[in-house]
Amino acid sequence: MAIQQLTAFVENRRGRLVELTRLLAAAGVDLRALSIADTQEFGILRAIVSDTPKAMDILRRSGVLVKSTPVVGVRLTDRPGELSLALAALDEAGINVEYLYAFLAVTPGVADLVLRVQDNDAAERVLREAGFEII
């Protein structure tokens, strides 16, 4: 059960990110997870939001190139070594992780992880079999 992630290319200039987050907030779109990697001229924004179609529409109308990508969400116990166990399960099954980012969940003692892999169904199966909760 993959979740949808927004990937947007945002101009790397002062005020652009605040402008976009204000537009999303004004439309009632909640940012659940966020990652930004920068290049010289653009930032690559990856986000899990409360309303993907609405967020995509807002970003596109603001001149942002944006797409939706299915990703895997997995819940980890918040303790040392838990991420390594999840990654080892995927590695042993021959599943390569293209990128990931983590965020603390509202529930104490857990952390949520977003993974981009080539085969979401296989990754979810492997992680479930290894005892991890898919979100």
Tell me briefly what this model is.
This protein has 135 residues and is α+β, with helices and mostly antiparallel strands. The protein has four helices and seven strands.
Can you tell me about this structure?
The chain is 31% helix and 41% strand. The chain is elongated. It has 2 domains: 68 residues, VC0802-like (2-Layer Sandwich); 64 residues, Alpha-Beta Plaits. Strands 1, 2, 3, 4, 5, 6 and 7 form a 7-stranded antiparallel beta sheet that branches. The protein has 135 residues and is an alpha+beta fold. β2 and β3 form a beta hairpin.
Please describe the topology of this protein:
Elements: E1 3-11, H1 16-26, E2 31-38, E3 42-49, H2 52-61, E4 65-77, H3 82-92, E5 97-104, E6 110-117, H4 120-129, E7 133-134
Antiparallel strand pairs: 1-3, 1-4, 2-3, 4-6, 4-7, 5-6
